[in-house]
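Repro:
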Amino acid sequence: MNVVIFGPPGAGKGTQASNIAKKFELYQISTGDLLRNEVENQTDIGKVIENIISKGDFATDEIVNDLIEKVIFDPQKKNKLIFDGYPRSVNQAENLDLLLSKSSQKIDFIFFLNVKKETIIKRIEKRKILENRADDNISTLLKRYDTYMKTTKPVLDFYSQKHNFHEIDGDKKIVEISSKIEQILSV
């Protein structure tokens, strides 16, 4: 089973993807984690990524697609993937379909966590206290949220027409969201 879960920054994608990964024995693929790993390891691409992210922008499709391709073609992870926050653009969505097709895989479930801006701000403020993540600055978050809404609206349109698309009310409590997603995955 391959799953896509997406939504704005702070929507709870990582939390939900982690829950799903544990319960259904999937590999959680977070582009954020992939990008942060490159930055932490100070690879050449990591330095480029760090510069882009520090401005509140997203890494280019080319960078993200290259990192994702390595994961998709890992035989241990075949049909056991949950994409956390990817794709963020129609180009990435089309690329994902192409890569999965080339590796004889497909997307089985698509979840969109629909969350209001006010809810996200509250969550980020709480997360900042608990985890102190560098990417949790409120002004950077608001820029990322606006960028996300602009660039990801076409992805929402792209996926919402598919039979395996599910919009989830992301303003609900974590356990309620998890329960709804697990209910859909267990059918």
